[in-house]
Amino acid sequence: MSAPVEGRRARRARRPRAIWLGWLFAAPAVIMYATFVLRPLLLTVQYSLYDWNGIGASTWVGLDNYRRLLTDEDLFSSILHAFELIIFFSGIPVVLGLFVAATIRDIAQSRLAVIARTVLFLPQVIPLVAAGIMWSWLLSTTGTANELLSAVGLGDLTRAWLGDFDTALPAVGVIGAWVLVGLCTLLLLAGMSKIDPSLYEAARLDGAGPIREFLSITLPSLRQEIGVCVTVTVIAALASFDIVYIATQGGPGNTTMVPGLEIYYLAFSEREVGMASALAVALIVLVLACVLPIQRFTRDGSR
Q: Which residue intervals define the domain ABC transmembrane type-1 in the entry (predicted)?
């Protein structure tokens, strides 16, 4: 028998052993993922089909919890509030991040750019609880925002921004935008650093101005980075909890109630574990419905 044939047989004999060895190394991670991610997820789906207070016997209700989710005005409005927050958590940070990154791109290696990046990224390293408390002070009746308005003669506009029915949700959105704009700016700035400078030189030779360069070179080249920014910020808006809980606790009334906070109140205050689980499942579906098209759009653009 020839040596090459014996070699192939030996490699085939070693292949199953190598596969099992690979699974053996991956086993701890797979077990942890199944225990702490997949099992709770499946249990949440199961609980959503029951009427259960978390302690006593549960009663099978089928899809009644989901039906109530669509017919209960308070529950449904919490989902609408989360979608309104997308404008502030995603729209403003991405647009503002593009503008700031394009502005400081030419001085990216200077000391001024380093200071700008540090200042912009600072909200990301501040705990969200601390950020919520700080903004609660700034937006209070006697806070800095109202003092500035009074100083420029706009005292009639002063109010408790987080306690007013008309301004509470936009005020929470401003806090979220402040937290996320630095992250978006740095991601977009990193993407701009990968663009070939010769493209800009060629565009200038053809007479293109800054706006034309931005629309024809910068924006198309940042498709993947913009996709990442939109994905992260949309998830932050739909799954928001910390900032809302610290700043308004869902009030005044239910004007700033979001699904994450509603799930918390249903499960731990009102003891409606089944209803809270149904809302959690709906939130997961909404996040996937928003994120998957964004990821698909980004992937197609990279081909």
A: 79-292
